[in-house]
Amino acid sequence: MKLPQTMNLGQIAQYIGGKVHGDATLNIDSVSPSPLHAKEEELAFVFEAKLVKKLNACKARAIVAPTGTEKEYPDRNMILVDRPNLAIQRVLTALQPKRYYPPKGIHPTAVIDESAEIAQDAAIGPYVVIGPKSKVGARTIIMAQTVIGGEVTIGEDCVFHPGCLIADYVKIGSRVILQQGAALGSDGFGYVTERPSNLEKNMSGDKDFSDEENPLLKIPQIGTVVVEDDAEIGSYATIDRATMGATTVGRGTKIDNLVMVAHNNRIGKDVLIIGNATIGGSCTIGDRGVIGGSASLSDHIHMGNDAVLSGGSGAMRDIASGDIHAGTPAAPARDFFAQVANLKRLPRVQDDVKDLKRRIALLEEQLLK
Question: 263 an active-site residue?
Answer without folding.
Answer: yes
